[in-house]
Amino acid sequence: MADRRRIQGPEVSVAPIILKSPNKIQLLDENLCRRNGRNLEDIRSIYLKTGLISQANGSAFIELSKTKIVCGVYGPRQTKIPAFSGKGNLNCEIKFAPFSCPKRRPPYRDSQEKELSQLIYEALTPSIRLDLLPKSTIDIYITILENDGTASCLAAAITCASVAVADAGIEMLDLVPACSASYINGQIFMDSDLIEEKRESGSLVLSYMPSLKEITHILQSGEVELNLTSQAIEQCTDSCSKIYSIMIDSLLLPIQNMK
Amino acid sequence: MNVQFLFPKPPPSIEEVKDADGDIDMLLKSQRQKFETKVVTPGEVIAKDTQYMRGHGTYLDENETHLASVAGVVERVNKLITVRPLNTRYTGNIGDLVIGRITEVSNKRWKVDINSRQDAVLLLSAIHLPGVQRRKTEADELQMRKFYSEGDLLVAEIQGSFQDGSSSLHTRSLKYGKLRNGSFLIVPPTLVQRTKSHFHRLDCGVDVTLGLNGYVWVSKPSSRVLNEMSEDDSEYIYSNENEPIGKDAREAIARVCNCINALSKSYMSITDTTISYAYEASLNFSVKEILKLESIELIANQTKQRLKA
C-alpha cells in the first residue's frame, strides 16, 4: 500500500500549457485586420437571449465570442429596511465566477467587483423610471461566466442588464447599450479582447440611449490624446446603435412567438 | 345655371367600429392600422400626434411624442394608448381576488406577498373573527399568529390600493381565508383573466382557485359546509391541519397542477375550461410525463383545437 502521508501524484502526467506572452502576439496583420479577422472598428458578433432564469422576474444572457455573462433582475419588490424614499432603489451586484478569468477568482467580493457594480449602477440609473416605484427595490445580479477583456465585459454587462430590466417589464426611458474601445499605439481598437487589452495605453467605455440620443455614462482611463477620444466616442455611439437593434430583436422574439 | 343637390354621404375614410362597450372608434382607418398588434421596445416612438392620452407603459418627451417605456404590445382604447408588457408585476385593483402568502406579522396587521411591487396589508379588523360578529379585542391582537402566521397561504379580496402600489386586503367572507389541503403554483399574472367566479370545481373532483395575481391554488374540495354563525366553523377556518387526502385525490391534484404549468409554459390563458381541456388531453400521459416538453406541446395543441371548435 502506498504511503498515505505523502501526496500521491496522478498516474498520467500531462505537460503544462505554456501561454504565449501577449507582447509577442501580433495584433494587426498587413491588411489592418485583427487576429480574429475583424477590422479595427468592428465589434465581435453578439448572441443575446432573454428569459433564461425562470425564477427571476427578468433575465438575459449575452455572449461576445468568449465573453459570457448572465444577468437576473428581481423586483420591483418591497424595500427591506423601511426608510421612506419617494424613489425606488436600484441595487446592482456583479460577480466574477471563480473560473471566469485566466487566473482563479476567489469567491468573495473583491474591490474590482464593487467598483464595476457601482459603474453599472451609474450607467443604468438614468434609463430606469425609479420615480414611479416608491418604496421599492430592483435587484440586478450579474454573473460573469467568462471574461475576455474587462472593459468589454463591463460594456456587455450593462447591455445585458438593461435587456434583463426591460424583460422584467420595468418602465424605462430607453434601453442602454454599451460599447468599449482600447487605445493601442495611437489607434482605436473597438471591443478589444483580453490580449489586446494587455497592450492598451487607455480605454473607453460608453453607455448610450440611442432613441433619446443621450449618453448615460462614460468611463475613460489611461493616457490618450483629445482628438482620439472624440473619435472613439463617435465610434462607440455608432456601435451602440448596432447593439441596440440586437437588443430589440431579443426582446421582441418572445412576444412574437406568443402570437 | 344648373344646380345639383347631392345626397349627403358619410366621410369614406371613417369606418364605424364599435368596441365591447359600444364606444365608437373615431380614428381614421389609416390611423387605426398603425396600432393593430404593434410590438414596441423601450424608447420606441408610438405616436407623434398630441391628440392621444398617455397610458401605462408610455411617456412623453419634450416634443410631446409618445414613447414606449416597456417592451410589449401596444393597446389603444379610443385616444388612450397603453403598452402591455409580456411579464410584469401584478398591480392590485379593487375587488380583485388574490392569493397571497403572509410574510410578516406586525402591529394589528399582516404583510402579505401578492406578487406586487409592494407587500399588501391585511388589517386585523379586515378578517373574519371567530365567533358571532363582534369587534376585535386586545386578546385578538395578542394572538394574531393563531389566525395567520408567517408562511401561511390565504385567499383574499383587494379592498383598496394606495399611491405607492401597495394594496389592502380583506377576508371578511367565508369564501376567503386560509388555504389548506392542496398545492400552490405560480403563473404569469396576465394569463389569469377577470371572470365572474375564481373558485372552480373541476369534473375530476379538484378545486382550483385562480388568483388574479398569478398565484393558483389547487386543492381537494372541503367536505365541510361552512356556516357563518357556528362557533366551531370559525375555529375550523383558521386550523393548520390538513384533512386526510387519498392517493387518487393527490394524483388528481398533481395532474391539474402539471396541466396548469403546461398551459402557462405555452402561454395560454388559464380558465376553468382550458384547465379541464388540458386535463382531458393529459389523460394519455402519466402525471410525471406531463412535464416533458413534447407532452406540453401536445396538450397545448389539443386544448387550442378544442377551444376553436
From TrEMBL, chain A:
<dbReference type="GO" id="GO:0003723">
    <property type="term" value="F:RNA binding"/>
</dbReference>
<dbReference type="GO" id="GO:0000177">
    <property type="term" value="C:cytoplasmic exosome (RNase complex)"/>
</dbReference>
<dbReference type="Pfam" id="PF03725">
    <property type="entry name" value="RNase_PH_C"/>
</dbReference>
<dbReference type="InterPro" id="IPR001247">
    <property type="entry name" value="ExoRNase_PH_dom1"/>
</dbReference>
<dbReference type="GO" id="GO:0016075">
    <property type="term" value="P:rRNA catabolic process"/>
</dbReference>
<dbReference type="Pfam" id="PF01138">
    <property type="entry name" value="RNase_PH"/>
</dbReference>
<comment type="similarity">
    <text>Belongs to the RNase PH family.</text>
</comment>
<dbReference type="GO" id="GO:0034475">
    <property type="term" value="P:U4 snRNA 3'-end processing"/>
</dbReference>
<keyword id="KW-0694">RNA-binding</keyword>
<keyword id="KW-0698">rRNA processing</keyword>
<dbReference type="InterPro" id="IPR036345">
    <property type="entry name" value="ExoRNase_PH_dom2_sf"/>
</dbReference>
<protein>
    <submittedName>
        <fullName>Uncharacterized protein</fullName>
    </submittedName>
</protein>
<feature type="domain" description="Exoribonuclease phosphorolytic">
    <location>
        <begin position="175"/>
        <end position="236"/>
    </location>
</feature>
<dbReference type="GO" id="GO:0005730">
    <property type="term" value="C:nucleolus"/>
</dbReference>
<dbReference type="GO" id="GO:0006364">
    <property type="term" value="P:rRNA processing"/>
</dbReference>
<dbReference type="GO" id="GO:0000176">
    <property type="term" value="C:nuclear exosome (RNase complex)"/>
</dbReference>
<keyword id="KW-0271">Exosome</keyword>
<keyword id="KW-0539">Nucleus</keyword>
<dbReference type="InterPro" id="IPR050080">
    <property type="entry name" value="RNase_PH"/>
</dbReference>
<dbReference type="InterPro" id="IPR027408">
    <property type="entry name" value="PNPase/RNase_PH_dom_sf"/>
</dbReference>
<dbReference type="GO" id="GO:0071051">
    <property type="term" value="P:poly(A)-dependent snoRNA 3'-end processing"/>
</dbReference>
<keyword id="KW-0963">Cytoplasm</keyword>
UniProtKB/TrEMBL annotation, chain B:
<dbReference type="GO" id="GO:0071035">
    <property type="term" value="P:nuclear polyadenylation-dependent rRNA catabolic process"/>
</dbReference>
<feature type="domain" description="Exosome complex component N-terminal">
    <location>
        <begin position="39"/>
        <end position="77"/>
    </location>
</feature>
<feature type="domain" description="RRP4 S1">
    <location>
        <begin position="89"/>
        <end position="159"/>
    </location>
</feature>
<dbReference type="Pfam" id="PF15985">
    <property type="entry name" value="KH_6"/>
</dbReference>
<dbReference type="GO" id="GO:0071028">
    <property type="term" value="P:nuclear mRNA surveillance"/>
</dbReference>
<dbReference type="InterPro" id="IPR048565">
    <property type="entry name" value="S1_RRP4"/>
</dbReference>
<dbReference type="InterPro" id="IPR025721">
    <property type="entry name" value="Exosome_cplx_N_dom"/>
</dbReference>
<keyword id="KW-0694">RNA-binding</keyword>
<dbReference type="GO" id="GO:0034475">
    <property type="term" value="P:U4 snRNA 3'-end processing"/>
</dbReference>
<dbReference type="GO" id="GO:0071051">
    <property type="term" value="P:poly(A)-dependent snoRNA 3'-end processing"/>
</dbReference>
<dbReference type="InterPro" id="IPR036612">
    <property type="entry name" value="KH_dom_type_1_sf"/>
</dbReference>
<keyword id="KW-0271">Exosome</keyword>
<dbReference type="Pfam" id="PF21266">
    <property type="entry name" value="S1_RRP4"/>
</dbReference>
<dbReference type="GO" id="GO:0000176">
    <property type="term" value="C:nuclear exosome (RNase complex)"/>
</dbReference>
<dbReference type="InterPro" id="IPR012340">
    <property type="entry name" value="NA-bd_OB-fold"/>
</dbReference>
<comment type="similarity">
    <text>Belongs to the RRP4 family.</text>
</comment>
<dbReference type="GO" id="GO:0071038">
    <property type="term" value="P:TRAMP-dependent tRNA surveillance pathway"/>
</dbReference>
<dbReference type="GO" id="GO:0000467">
    <property type="term" value="P:exonucleolytic trimming to generate mature 3'-end of 5.8S rRNA from tricistronic rRNA transcript (SSU-rRNA, 5.8S rRNA, LSU-rRNA)"/>
</dbReference>
<dbReference type="GO" id="GO:0000177">
    <property type="term" value="C:cytoplasmic exosome (RNase complex)"/>
</dbReference>
<dbReference type="InterPro" id="IPR026699">
    <property type="entry name" value="Exosome_RNA_bind1/RRP40/RRP4"/>
</dbReference>
<keyword id="KW-0539">Nucleus</keyword>
<dbReference type="GO" id="GO:0071034">
    <property type="term" value="P:CUT catabolic process"/>
</dbReference>
